[in-house]
Amino acid sequence: MNKHLSLIEPVIRQDLAELREIRRQDAQRRMERDASQARIPKRYVGLTLDDYQINHPAQFQAKSACEAYAKQFNWVLELGGNMLLLGGPGTGKTHLACAILQHIQARGFHGIYTTHENLRAHLRASYDDDAEQRERDATAAFIRPELLVIDELESAKG
Questions:
Q1: C-alpha of 19 from chain center
Q2: d(CA 101, CA 39)
Q3: What's the confidence (pLDDT) of residue 144?
Q4: What is the mean pLDDT of each run of 10 residues along the chain (158 residues)?
Q5: Alpha-helix runs per DSSP H in the chain
Q6: Residue 149, SS3?
Q7: What is residue 113's predicted lDDT score, i.e. its pLDDT?
Q8: DSSP H or E segment with residue 151
Q9: Which pLDDT belongs to residue 33?
């Protein structure tokens, strides 16, 4: 019996390796699909909070706060909480926000990423008389998800 097992053992190992690879590819496709639906910029797809580079003590605090927000997102929803990330250009605000978004998506929540300018343009387009969708419908796309990430607020006018 051991002789027969030793003959099929390499086949079983190969099958298991192939199965692991299929599962890995499936998870990758699912993550990319979710990121696309959430409109996450390609540059940030797949980045996690663990990938965030800390170069300053304030960034450590920001990362810790983001980890707590992401891990306790069900409580955030229940309490109606939100988070505002402040910092200069290049400090990783978008990375952190997209990492939170991807983290909550992996847990079954829905979210969407947009910039302030894209949100304004989307809503403004609904004001035209010949607009395909009215303001209520245009707004719904951003209200329906459990998490809305609005980036580049520092460039907002008015």
A1: 27
A2: 10
A3: 84
A4: 70 82 70 67 93 94 97 94 91 96 92 89 75 70 88 73
A5: 2-37, 57-71, 73-79, 93-106, 116-125, 135-143
A6: strand
A7: 93
A8: strand 147-151
A9: 63
pLDDT of 100 reads 97
Single-letter amino acid, residue 4: H
Which residue type sits at 122? H
Closest by CA to 102, choosing from 52, 138, 158, 143, is 52
Which residues are CB-contacts of 149 (< 8 A; sequence separation ≥ 6)?
A: 97, 98, 100, 101, 111, 112, 113, 114
Q: In angstroms, rounded to a whole number, what is the distance separating the alpha carbons of residues 19 and 26?
A: 10
Query: From residue 86, how far is each of 54, 91, 105, 119, 157 by CA, in Å?
Result: 15, 9, 23, 19, 17
Q: Output 6-15 pairs: Cβ under 8 A, ≥24 positions apart.
A: none
CB-CB neighbours of 37 under 10 Å? 13
Q: Which element (helix H / strand E) includes 150?
A: strand 147-151
Identify which of 152, 12, 32 has the alpha carbon closest to the alpha carbon of residue 102: 32
The token duo for 141 is 């796309």
